[in-house]
UniProtKB/TrEMBL annotation:
Primary site of residence: membrane
Domain Multidrug resistance protein MdtA-like barrel-sandwich hybrid span(s) in chain numbering: 59-191
Protein location: Cell inner membrane
UniProt organism field: Vibrio ezurae NBRC 102218
Protein name, UniProt field: Putative drug resistance transporter
Matches recorded under Pfam families: Beta-barrel_RND, BSH_RND, HH_MFP_RND, RND-MFP_C
GO biological process, one term: response to antibiotic
Keyword Transport: no
Source organism, top-level taxon: Bacteria
Amino acid sequence: MKKSLQVVSLVSALMLAGCGESQKPQQTAVAPTVIVEPVAIVAYQPSKAYVGRIEAVEDVDITAQVTGYLKQRHFKEGQIVEKGQLLYTIEPSSFEAQVASAKASVAQASAHLKRAENDYLRAKNLLPRGSISQSEFDTKQAEKLGADAQLQAANAQLLLAQVNLSYTQITAPFTGRISDTKVSTGDLLSPSSGTLTTLVSLDPVHASFQLSERERLAFGFDKYQGDGESNSGESNSGGVEVTLELENGQQHPQKGTLDFVGNRIDLTTGTLAVRALVPNEQHTLLPGQHINVVIASTNTQDAVAIPRRAVQTDVAGDFVMLMSEGNVAERRNVELGAQTENGVIVHTGLGEGDKIIVGGLQRVRNGLPVQVAPAKAESKPEAAE
């Protein structure tokens, strides 16, 4: 009996010892120490990069307007030509002859008109005396009017002959770079010959790109009037400035200005056509070239900025850990924007007054309590991270 009591006492002691050990970790658990910062509200100029394409402001196919043999080409292929510069000469002999013939017709019609006018004046003086009949007077008057019409027709033919003669000299309609020639000296040219060469302007050029409906509203393109002014009357090129980045990473030295916004959203892509006018004095930009178009708002707006080190990423996207009421960690998904000197911009997920955890994130879990490190120790968890 005595041994039985000893065994029971021993078992009870072991059970109590086991319960004490199982409860000990819960009693000694310590909340992780973290560094907390309030989100910063900064003045921000929204900007975004788009893939665009360079287009020529002027782009023309040079063609022949009259039929004739090509006499001479006056340019080097690929060179810059000035407005009005002579490009091709078509053999002008036949057209010069047509001008001479038209001038002779004008002279003949002028002489005929002069005689008809003299006959009309004589008839006009004789009619009151009864020396001629009314019918004869009407005839002289009609002859005068017919001679006048013949002179006008002759002048029109002369003008047409002179225009055709001018077409024998094909000139550049604007300043730009000319391409290779498709014809050679001696070829018979006509309006049906097709393109002789092409000419494109290089300064300035257009930079065309597409942006979404949401970005149209964000950058204020809905206020663009097409004349560089907003609805408020401010001359701000649509409220944005345009910068181009070349494929080698360098920036085009001159900024562009918005000069066109489309009038409808493309139903297929859900985007809006936008175009900027960009100076190109050095001709570094060529039509057809792909370019990165960076547009930035000229107007600042308040935005949330946080340190980049506070952002974590998993399969669900970017998120940060907040310290909510009761010093409890809370996960908050965010949509990030551009990186600025004040931190990374957060478009959605955070607001003024939120406090985010920026240090000691390794042991922080959603819903678990945390404790804030003293101000003097803020740098230690940061270093440990």
